[in-house]
Design brief:
The chain has strands at about 1-5, 25, 35, 50-55, 65-70, 70-75. It is an all-beta fold and about 80 residues long. The chain has a three-stranded antiparallel β-sheet with strand order 1-4-5, with no helix packed on it. It has a three-stranded antiparallel β-sheet with strand order 2-3-6, with no helix packed on it. It is globular.
C-alpha cells in the first residue's frame, strides 16, 4: 500500500504520510483476489492508500487500485 493525499498542500506536517504498518496478506478465504490488512493510520489528513502491484519479474508497476483510508483492502489478482 502506498499513501496518498487529497492534494500537495494538505499535509499538516509538510512531509509525506507515514507508511502503512503491520501490512499482512489475509489468507482466511480462498478467492480470486488478494486482501491486505494493516494497522489504522491516525493521521487526520490522510486521504487514503493506493495498492500497486507487479509480477516479480517486472521492473514497472503493472496495476493499481485506490482503496481509500481503510484497514482491509481487496484487490483483483491478475491472471496469467
Amino acid at each position: 500500500m502506498k499513501p496518498s493525499r487529497p492534494g500537495p498542500s494538505s499535509s499538516m506536517n509538510g512531509g509525506a504520510p507515514d507508511a502503512p504498518s503491520q501490512v499482512q496478506v489475509r489468507t482466511d478465504k480462498l478467492e480470486n483476489a488478494t486482501s491486505l490488512q494493516r494497522q489504522p493510520n491516525t493521521e487526520p489528513d490522510l486521504a487514503g492508500y493506493r495498492v500497486v502491484w507487479r509480477a516479480t519479474t517486472a521492473d514497472q508497476w503493472q496495476g493499481a487500485q485506490d482503496v481509500g483510508n481503510v484497514s482491509v483492502a481487496t484487490c483483483p489478482t491478475p491472471r496469467r
